């Protein structure tokens, strides 16, 4: 069974993050999900901190991009850093910010293996205020726009 290009992209992003060896984060803490979430059943045994990778919205097609035989397709992938900091304003803040910075630097304006000729990082809120205030959960997100040139037909 052939793999979907998006699935291969998700796996490559996961592998790249795991290879980055972020301090305090094991490989098992980098997860691919269909929908980003923090339900206990969807998280590893040691739930937090973790990084969740998931598709975000529909792929995009640009009729003015590509070639006569290939289309440029943009896959949107969300990377979310999740950590339970119990409402502490300073606990591990520098660490989580360093992870976010490292991930942005890892992917922005870079190709992704042989799957995407370019990745653009769109930073989202550094700290999701609602998740932090109401769930004592640190959530920080980056959106990756992954540009793939795919054959037609």
Describe the structure.
By secondary structure, the protein is of the alpha+beta class. The longest helix has 16 residues, at 5-20. The chain is built from three helices and seven strands, in the order αββββαββαβ. It has one domain (5-34, 47-151): STM4215-like (2-Layer Sandwich).
What topology does this entry show?
Blueprint: H1 5-20, E1 30-32, E2 50-55, E3 60-61, E4 70-84, H2 93-107, E5 110-112, E6 116-123, H3 129-135, E7 137-151
Parallel strand pairs: 1-2
Antiparallel strand pairs: 2-4, 3-4, 4-7, 5-6, 6-7
In short:
This protein is α+β, with helices and mostly antiparallel strands and 153 residues long. The chain has helices at 5-20, 93-107, 129-135; strands at residues 30-32, 50-55, 60-61, 70-84, 110-112, 116-123, 137-151.
The secondary-structure class comes to: alpha+beta
Please tally the β strands and state the result: 7
The separation of the N and C termini measures 18 Å
The major beta sheet can be summarized as: 7 strands, mixed
